[in-house]
Specification:
107 residues, mainly alpha
Length: 107
């Protein structure tokens, strides 16, 4: 896990994706593993990354980073309008991000 995080932080996305993917397969209950695996695969596979961010949020609904990344991916894929950071406060931003992900599950 730690080696995967170090690879992620140093920009070695392919090896980080492989290593964190193995960790995610071994421990599907850790929201942070899902989140960091999503980060590693996002450049090459935004759809799979979105699934990892959503899994992280399902495991820990308070994980704001996963909500932000999920909303960002949805925006880049053209599935929602707007830009991150338009909310008046961090609490409003968090509510907006969670609402975006929740709407995706409804549709």
């Amino acid at each position: 896990y730690v080696a995967g995080l170090l690879e992620l932080r140093s920009g070695e996305m392919a090896s980080a994706a492989e290593r964190l993917g193995r960790v995610a397969a071994m421990d599907a209950s850790d929201p942070y593993v899902a989140y960091f695996h999503g980060q590693a695969i996002e450049p090459q596979s935004p759809e799979r990354a979105l699934a990892e961010y959503e899994r992280a949020l399902a495991l820990d609904p308070a994980q704001r980073s996963a909500a932000y990344r999920a909303a960002s991916v949805l925006r880049r894929l053209g599935r929602i309008d707007g830009k991150p950071g338009n909310a008046d406060s961090s609490e409003d931003q968090q509510q907006e991000e969670h609402a975006v992900v929740a709407r995706r599950h409804e549709g």
